[in-house]
Amino acid sequence: MVALIRHRTDAFFTGLGRFGLLLGSAFSGTPHLRLYYRNLTEQFVRVGIDSLPIVALASAFTGAVAAVQSIYQLEGSFYLPKTAVGSFVTTSVILELGALIAAFILAGRVGARIAAELGTMRVTEQIDALEAMGLNSASYLVLPRILAGVLMFPLIYVVACTVGIGMGIVVGETTGVIPLATFIDGARLLFRPYDLFFGVVKSLAFGFAITSVSCYYGYYTSGGAEGVGRSTTQATVMSCVFVLLADYVLAVIML
Amino acid sequence: MIEIQNLSKGFDGRSVLEDVSLEIRDGETFAVIGRSGSGKSVLLKHIIGLLTPDAGRVLIDGTDLHALSYGELRKIRRQFGVLFQGGALFDSMSALENVAFPLRTFTRQSEAEIMDRAHWCLSVVKLPDAGSKKPSELSGGQQKRVALARAVALEPRYILYDEPTSGLDPQTSATINDLIVHLAETLHATSIVITHDMNSVLAIADRAGFIHERRLHWTGTMEDLRCCADEATLAFVKASEYVI
Ligand SMILES: Nc1ncnc2c1ncn2[C@@H]1O[C@H](COP(=O)(O)OP(=O)(O)OP(=O)(O)O)[C@@H](O)[C@H]1O
Ligand SMILES: [Mg+2]
């Protein structure tokens, strides 16, 4: 038992060390700008633009459900004013739901793709081929993906918030319970610009967590097709774990 | 010059190579033969520092690869062209893009020059029309040849071939053998060719080394092979249907 725990802790720290090394060499490379430019724009599109539809869909439903639930609670209470719905939907989407829902979707969508892509490149010796040419493979493969994650995630977050709150408004209007003006009054009541700043910082952290963790699992894949499958699963699971951790830590630090 | 000194390597406690020492002189073509699983590809990966020896050293022009910083190692690697056993083509790029990749990365040539060179390299490996195809649309042998074109696109000083003719028909094999000889002559390249194919060894190599039971069992010239190789080596050679 002790041996097992020791083995696990050792493995954890070795993993952490390799994670650090990977990021180190990814960020230390003298970039071949021409090459990276292509790679970077491609990653921007794949990480960011391609994810927008599904993120929008998920946050639409999240916003709608948040609105329905708060209307439901409103009906059971004599004390809550109607503006509470707007306050509740807006703050929960901006502070937590927008970024978190988007993060979970990206962990599945972008994280899995990154891990499978890099894992396949590893087991088919494409990474060895890059290295053999004298390229810094970590910098060539990992850096653009992390940059795309970090830079695109805030955009995705803003879209998620807009759509989520928008759907809250639509639900309020269509059920006839909360008119637009009341909703906006409620939203204004509790809204602080700092919340939005907090959300953006969070989305930067989530973007980094998802892409770097997935790159790590993909880059160090071993063991053929089975290994690629394993890395892909680990990448999504661990991305989610790190997103939740980051979520908690940032809440403690910043709120 | 490539020097391998007392190199040993194992994986997970299982030894693959033991005490291998070998010198490959500038300009020569050296063939590495040996059974499947004997450690030929492992040896090749040590020469470009993709694997780290458990013991021993690899020297390129006198510099110990594993004493170098990563940046210096990458500089040395740029003198090498490597054909991996599985081709290792970038599957996100077309065949032409694969061949153009090292040119784009490491030269300042114009787009037109790069395309000219890439087309030319593909025609040398007898695939002039495959340029627009993705690796997944090519046969195994075709992938290998595109990979060969990519390996030599930059006219490297050292060329490492991991089974360049395996999976190819005799005629295409002969073309590839000619190409290897031609490159060695025109570029004055130093080549290491891993192969099972004794016909190709005799066609291209100046010297050969036989890996057997984890050791470099035999090295010598083609004449040595005919006259004085030991039993184990001859048994391996004879098994490949070549009659000396
Ligand atoms: N990364 C690795 N991890 C663990 N074992 C390995 C690794 N690479 C090679 N081996 C082992 O080392 C031995 C030699 O492998 P290698 O690929 O060098 O054989 P080979 O001589 O090239 O064979 P073939 O002619 O079939 O290509 C094999 O038994 C293989 O299982
Ligand atoms: Mg091999």
Report on this model:
The complex is a heterodimer of chains A (255) and B (244). Chain A is an all-alpha fold and 255 residues long. Chain A has one domain. Chain A has helices at residues 2-28, 33-48, 52-75, 83-123, 126-132, 137-175, 180-190, 193-219, 224-254. In chain A, α3 (52-75) packs parallel to α6, α4 crosses α7 (180-190) and α4 runs antiparallel to α9 (224-254). The longest helix of chain A has 41 residues, at 83-123. Chain A is elongated, with a radius of gyration of 21 Å. Chain A starts with a helix and ends with a helix. The mean pLDDT of chain A is 91. Chain B starts with a strand and ends in a 5-residue tail after the last helix. Chain B has helices at residues 40-47, 70-77, 95-106, 111-124, 140-152, 170-186, 198-204, 222-228, 231-239, and strands at residues 2-11, 14-24, 29-34, 55-60, 63-64, 80-83, 158-162, 190-194, 207-212, 215-221. Chain B has a domain at 90-155. Chain A binds chain B through residues 25, 32, 34-35, 120-121, 124-126, 128-129, 131-136, and chain B through 45, 48, 50, 70, 74-78, 80, 82, 84-86, 88-91, 101-102, 104-106. The complex binds adenosine-5'-triphosphate (ATP) and magnesium ion (MG). Adenosine-5'-triphosphate is lined by residues 11, 16, 34, 36-42, 85 of chain B.
Report helical residue fraction of chain B.
25-40%
Largest interface: A-B, 17 and 23 residues
Strand neighbour order, sheet with most strands of chain B:
6-7-8-3-9-10
Which hetero ligands occur in this complex?
Answer: adenosine-5'-triphosphate, magnesium ion
Biggest β-sheet of chain A, characterized?
none
Tell me the number of helical segments of chain B per DSSP (H or I, 4 or more residues long): 9
The count of β-strands of chain B is 10
Shape of chain B: globular
Distance between the termini of chain A: 40 Å
| Whole-angstrom Rg of chain B | 18 Å
| Topology pattern of chain B, helix = H, strand = E | EEEHEEHEHHHEHEHEEHH
* Percent strand of chain A: under 5%
| SS content category of chain A | mainly alpha
